[in-house]
Specification:
Two copies of one chain form a homodimer.
Chain A lengths: L4 E3 L4 E6 L4 E6 L6 E7 L2 E5 L2 H8 L9 E3 L5 E8 L14 H6 L9 H11 L11 E3 L22 E7 L3 E7 L17 E5 L1
Antiparallel strand pairs in A: 1-11, 2-10, 3-9, 3-11, 4-5, 4-8, 4-10, 6-7, 7-9
Amino acid sequence: MADKVMIPARKGKAVVVDKGQSIRIINTYGSQVVDTWIYNLHDLSEFQSNEHTRAALLKLQFEPGDFVYTNFRRPIAKVEQDTSPGVHDMLMAACDKYRYQLLGCTEFHDSCTDNLANGMKEIGYEVHETPSPINIFMNIPWTTKGDLTIDPPVTEPGDYIQFRAMMDCIFAFSACPQDILPTNGVDGEITDAHFQIF
Amino acid sequence: MADKVMIPARKGKAVVVDKGQSIRIINTYGSQVVDTWIYNLHDLSEFQSNEHTRAALLKLQFEPGDFVYTNFRRPIAKVEQDTSPGVHDMLMAACDKYRYQLLGCTEFHDSCTDNLANGMKEIGYEVHETPSPINIFMNIPWTTKGDLTIDPPVTEPGDYIQFRAMMDCIFAFSACPQDILPTNGVDGEITDAHFQIF
């Protein structure tokens, strides 16, 4: 198993994962949300899509054994293992400069949208859109009426989720810098997270 | 009030709506789903986004009085009236050729994805992506566990929903051609729908 690679607190990181390899995303310190995107390595116009995954699974949220699907309705990754309580989010947009402006920020604030672009750029790829991310470890409960809340993660340090790549792909991550809402815990502390490929 | 304009069964239609105008989408025959997209007329890279609307409303589904938001987190339309039971969908991807291939179609089948592109082209605009649509009148109930089902619409002939444009925009529609699943009723009959601007 390869070494753990850091996703630095508040920042992005992207990595190529070959078909058949597995990637483990680790909540190292226990309450860090990791926004995640998955692209087809050979055609960035194909990427993991929450609205297509929901239509394929007929579920709001995947479980171990499920696939996640692209906008071309092909399985791009399989959920192999999940040692966390299985609470992840596929409903909420990635945070962006507009979000922080609306929350009262008058100066620059890191955002998952910028982190996606920067992480991809670091390994030589350009993206101009921000697909709806898989917000790993993010806790957005829904009611039967359809009300949503932004609750702190229910994870423990070391919890991980593991995906197997069903095609050559790029996984892009952001250690979500949301420190105003309780997305990353009530203390608003943002920490590093890690991934590991094998 | 202007004349009713037809959204032909199985096809797409797009129209410019000026800031302050209202547009009523009518379920003329009672069980037709109308996939709907809204773009900023002056910058097509800004469009109605379900994942940003959910984050703003903290709801899976809007109600009269709510706004729908763009990917730049600005209100693009206000839900003014809804004479239907208020059941619409913001979770499911637009149907596309891949969907029909997976459902066993070996020949061409109309799709909402093609209809968006064709409707926009008819009025002189090109789109290369298919944002997650507002599936007006589509009935996708969810459970507390997160299971989804594709149920027939609960609408009656003449039911309508009405939006007010908060900026100059384009509304693009598709009278959803899904005739294999019960999306448009158990008989799979696809009908015209209409809109009216005033």
